[in-house]
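Complex 278.
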Amino acid sequence: MSWKQLAIVCALGIAPAAEAAPGAGQDLAAEVRGIFEAKCARCHGPQLAKPRSGFGHVLDLRRLAADPDKVVPLRPDESGLWQQIDTGEMPPPNSPDGSLSALQKETIRAWIAAGAPAEGVSQSMESQPESAPSPSVVWRALLWLGKFHLLLVHFPIALLVAAAVAEGWSLWLGSRVPGAAARFCLGLGAVSAVPVVVLGWIYAAGGHGSPRLVDLHGWVGTAAGAWALVTAFVSERDARRGIRRWPTRILLLAGVLLVGVAAHLGGLMVHGSDFYDW
Ligand code: HEC
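Predicted structure with heme C bound:
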């Protein structure tokens, strides 16, 4: 478990034990095949006339395990396929299906270490206490919840921009009285940024997009959310005193620019860098 997943799990009050070792009590072969299907088959699947690098049998586990260039059963570190994954070469950073999560990588490694079985190696049931809740279900539910980042993220963005527009309007009118519209939009925008940031990190833990871009977007987005909270706090102080101060306006403008950068980085991940090409 990476520290980010750990932080999220702890923050949400779920015992870290919720994530069992990869493959424990499950069908490693089926799990690995599922990962290959989601993350590799686009370029290495049997449906392609010309698979990338002539490697089109990623879904045929039996053939894969018998292909010493790719997999040396029991020895992940000597397996070309694992090396490509470990060094981050595969899937390629620009793969439309995104990168592998730490858990997915560990599952693939565990599969090779277990001898690269082609099917069913569920562990003996006696060693699995029946009462234990299925661990990965909790984690899967969390990752599913993380998808709502993509939905909710539009609210703070629009609200913070609306706050800046309202503030610009009162500036245009030469007013120093804090306006109700800016106050409302900024307050709601800042508060709604909190769940958006939390869900964003959960979504990121599922492995979407290239890790560097995900990290950059995550930290700029987190900074923008924190910035919005500070700005909302300062704006509330203005409202209480009945006078809009210049530093608040500058904070708001800078915050909206930060939100714009974070939003652009997020857009790059979802829609690709060629989205605006003619
Ligand atoms: C977006 C397309 C794409 C995806 C997705 C992708 N690959 Fe690749 N893969 C390539 C390309 C292109 C090459 C050739 C790279 C080169 O020669 O430098 C390659 C080469 C490889 C090779 C070396 C094959 C050889 O013997 O030359 C392995 C192993 C590999 N990929 C495994 C994977 C695995 C495992 C996944 C999923 C986790 C994956 N790839 C996902 C495009 C992709």
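The CA atoms of residues 190 and 226 lie 8 Å apart.
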